[in-house]
Amino acid sequence: MNAPEVAPLSRTVTRDAIAAYADAVGDHNPIHVDEAFARTTPFGGVIAHGMLALAYVSETMERVFGERWARSGWLKVRFKLPARPGDVLTVTAEPRGSSEDGDRLRWEYAVTCANQRGETLISGTASVEAE
After folding, report:
1. Is the pLDDT of residue 1 over 90?
2. Can you tell me the distance from the alpha carbon of 50 to that of 55, in angstroms, rounded to the nearest whole number?
3. pLDDT(69) > 80
């Protein structure tokens, strides 16, 4: 049985999304929410929480696998660059085969989250239990 195809997902990072994420997780680090402070850092401005961008990767997989993703999905990724307000992030997941996990088959995907300039922000592997 072949791994299902996963359609790309695009999301725009907004200041409202960053603020809502900060409120939801209680992370109000000024690098995420205070433009004046963030301009004084090496980033030169506000950046999104890395886990906000990673949530878009998880959303991409959840759209195909639903409850199975919540129950058995995992991600192993590297954060390479920050997302910024106004960035349009596109997540792709390319099937890379399968592996055995005890008596269960798992599908594996190469996942990437890139911005509108084609810069990779997140890359890694996603895995989910096969049907």
Report:
1. no
2. 9
3. yes
For the stretch 32-65, pLDDT in tens is 999 999 999 999 999 999 999 999 999 999 999 9
Q: Which residues pair with 12 in a beta bridge?
A: 88
3-state secondary structure of 75: strand
Structure tokens given for 5: 């195809």
* Token pair listed for 56: 């878009």
Q: Are 93 and 101 in contact (CB under 8 A)?
A: no
Amino acid present at 71: R
How many CB atoms lie under 10 A from the CB of residue 48? 23
Express each pLDDT in 86-119 by its tens digit. 999 999 999 999 988 788 999 999 999 999 999 9
Query: How far is residue 45 from each of residues 51, 59, 71, measured CA to CA in Å?
Result: 18, 26, 37
Half-sphere exposure of 39 (CA within 13 A, CB side): 2
Asked whether 8 and 92 are in contact (CB, 8 A), the reply is: yes
pLDDT of res. 131: 80
- ∠ Cα 124 130 131 (to 5°): 150
